[in-house]
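Fig. S4 source data, part A: sequence.
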Amino acid sequence: MNLKVKSKKINDFTYELSIVALWKDIQEDFELCKKKVAKDIKVPGFRKGKIPNNILMSQYLGQIEMNFVQDFSEKYYFLALQKEKLNPINQAALKDIDFAYEKDFTFKSEFEIEPDLKAPKLKKNMVTVEKTNFISNEKEVEDTVLNILNSQSKTENIQEGSLEGDFMIADFQEVDASGVAIIGKKEKKYIAIGQEPFINNNKDLLLGKKVGDDIRMRIDLGSGEKDYSVNIDSMQRRIPPKLDKDFVQTMDPNCKSVEEWKKNIEKSIGLEYEKKSEELFNSAIIDQFIKLVNPVLPTSMLDSYLANIVNEVKTKQNMQNADDEKIKEEYKLFAENNLKWYLLRKAIIKDLDLSIDKEKVEKFIQDAIEKNDTQKSEIERFYKKESNRAKLSDDLLDQEILDLLKEHSKVKEKDTKTADLHAGHNHP
């Protein structure tokens, strides 16, 4: 089909096509449409689908023309896109439609395309990025050791002398202001001394007690503060194992001493912080280059992405009745940054002709096997899936892009004590 197409670029990502389909090229399509309409029309004196052409054209021409426009405008629109080599990212708006029998079919379409972003010309120190080096301390190691010991604790029943951290099962009998029990308001509760809501004064009331003790307590168990008579039914205490060579070897058979085990923990915490530092640094690099280029996003692109986020959030959090607009507002900045990085990343790959060949993928897999030889079969099985290999290739390409951007960034390093950042936490 010899369509006449004129394209008009409205902005960096919005196009308008003026499309003319000549009558001689669309006549066959019109006849098909006419036959389709004729099949559905009932005219007295004629079998369905056997209406004479003169009656059909004189009485139903308007309907045929309307159906033709509805049925074939999309076909000619897509042919026009192919001719202009354009790929819309949204549903086109068709307008200025003009058609009559034996006349050319003309209309316009307006749509958005993905911006053809150009990567910035890379040069030395084109952005400044801060990198945080986390400085951990000995307390984090000791806290981690303590947490591990507690996780391996054995639970023992105790009869008296309750301490913070002990557990109780108790009968909670709600009472009135004079201390008289309210019928039907009694239930068993699990108590962790020192944890919400058993803190502060209520924690103090539970210390040093024995099984069978009665305690008067005013506390909020979820329905407002009320008075209770609390009778302790049972008490338990976690007894951590002794920190010695035998325990250490149950955790890590390769460790020969407590000190060696602690050194390994210290190393592990350090690696965690290094990973965190690198992740923050990578994000900062991306943010700085996004700000430098500042791509403009097509409205439809952002709307579509936010719609997907809304559906994902509502499904994952089982919030089908949640306000869509509130979710969109919450994730708008996240969506904008992700899309801008997508466009910038794509431009860098295209302009610099970056790619990851099969050899690099294979090398990564083999290196992973060498480092984890006991998991050789699992690793091989995982990367037999083409989707996993494709994901690995994308990840390697991401790393190559980031390394390239780092080479052209000025890095300002900053030391931060982890104790100042993670008060109350053991590690990142």
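Fig. S4 source data, part B ends here. The domain at 255-421 is CATH 1.10.3120 (Trigger factor, domain 2).
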